[in-house]
Specification:
171 residues, alpha+beta, 2 domains, 3-stranded antiparallel β-sheet, 2 helices, 30% strand, elongated
């Protein structure tokens, strides 16, 4: 029977193996050395998070976030019931103010109608029942509290003409 004997490792192989184990041991040591501070920081972060939660719990009087949200919703509903709601109709928000104008034939002028105090004009216009007059401009006043119309009456009008100026105001 032929038994094969193992040869002794060469000195170069022994030195290489020792160097390999030393190198692996150093890397493992480095990993452990780096991991320890990371673990300490993780523990410190957990402690800080726990302290923050405890601090917030004190500020919130021991209530959960859902309890606080529920209380806020109840307060909002309570406040909403104390505030007057919207007008039941648009008529409750809008007021129409009127004024008159009157011109002789070949006459012209600016005529203005104002909204009540605290109201703003949103539109306006004018009416000419005799149909002998024209408007050159019809626009809000500079401060937005009334409506101005520039009217001119034709020379062919049979006499003085008159009509209505309108301002549509919002409360």
């Amino acid at each position: 029977m032929n038994v094969r004997r193992m040869k002794r490792p060469s000195p170069a192989l022994v030195v290489a193996m020792v160097a390999l184990f030393v190198a692996l041991g150093g890397t493992a040591g480095a990993v452990v050395t780096a991991a320890v501070p990371l673990a300490k920081r993780a523990l410190t972060a957990d402690k800080a998070k726990t302290a923050l939660v405890a601090d917030n719990a004190k500020k919130l009087g021991g209530q959960t976030s859902s309890q606080i949200a529920s209380q806020a919703a109840e307060q909002a509903v309570s406040k909403a019931s104390q505030v007057p709601g919207p007008a039941s109709t648009a008529a409750g928000l809008v007021a129409i103010k009127t004024g008159t104008w009157s011109l002789n034939p070949r006459g012209g002028g600016n005529f203005t109608v104002m909204c009540d105090a605290g109201q703003r004009v949103v539109a306006g216009g004018w009416a000419d029942p005799g149909d002998y007059s024209s408007s050159y401009q019809s626009l809000p006043t500079g401060d937005g509290s009334g409506w101005t119309t520039n009217i001119w009456t034709s020379g062919s009008a049979p006499g003085a003409q008159s009509g209505t100026i309108y301002a549509i105001c919002i409360k």
